[in-house]
Amino acid sequence: MKTKFARESYTVNTEVVLPNDTNNIGNLFGGKLMQWMDITSAIAAQRHCNRVVVTASINSVSFDNPIKQNSVVTLEAKVSRAFNTSMEVVIDVHVEDAVTGAKTKCNEAIFTFVAIDQNGAPLPVPEMVPETEEEKKRFAGALRRRQLSLLLAGRIKADDASELKALFVKE
Ligand SMILES: CC(C)(COP(=O)(O)OP(=O)(O)OC[C@H]1O[C@@H](n2cnc3c(N)ncnc32)[C@H](O)[C@@H]1OP(=O)(O)O)[C@@H](O)C(=O)NCCC(=O)NCCS
User: What residues contact residue 90 under an 8 Å CB cut-off, 6+ apart?
Assistant: First the structure.
């Protein structure tokens, strides 16, 4: 299976906040943003493995700033690490000033996708090689985040979360 670089497993999506996307104080609904983030990051994961993918988990979602109606929203999703059948995707959301074009970061989230076959069974995915400093940092942190997600989902025991434990236990 061909190894891929992070820059190949990447996608950018631009949306405009229309009246139907807002709550009664004129800000973008969190659920609408989640939908955009899910679709955009699924495309990045799909580009990585060239398979159908499903969302296995959503972690570390932060809604840092409200996004006003008419805003131009840019969603940038990149696979940060591939495991056996799963891939972690980090998505950054920016709001663009219509006049200056300046971008302000508003949200971030971390998704895990699993590649599946026609029967819904997980399939192996290619390895992912990080290149930039930021990609390397996110690659390294992905193992810890995976352990946390699996621990919270009851899929592993605390004793098996070695990367997580290392954060708390001093030698
Ligand atoms: C995701 C899914 C395919 C996993 O199937 P499964 O039979 O549990 O398969 P496995 O136990 O082999 O897990 C497959 C991979 O998912 C990962 N995974 C499962 N749950 C996870 C979680 N909560 N967080 C992170 N990774 C998770 C496993 O670690 C494994 O990764 P790896 O192969 O890279 O080690 C299955 O649970 C599913 O189809 N879920 C519904 C997906 C869906 O419909 N999403 C849309 C939202 S409604």
Answer: 77, 78, 80, 108, 109, 110, 138
Give domain limits for the chain.
4-130
Distance CA 31, CA 43 (A): 19
Sign of the C-alpha dihedral computed for residues 52, 57, 59 and 64 taken in this order: positive
- Per-residue pLDDT tens over the stretch 7-64: 899 999 999 999 999 999 999 999 999 999 999 999 999 999 999 999 999 988 888 8
| Domain 4-130 of CATH type 3.40.50.1970 | no
**How far apart (Å, rounded) are the C-alpha atoms in residues 130 and 114?**
19
List the residue whose alpha carbon is closest to atom 27 of ligand 1: 56
Tell me which of 38, 57, 60, 86 to substitute to probe ligand 1's pocket, judged by most ligand atoms within 8 Å of the beta carbon: 86
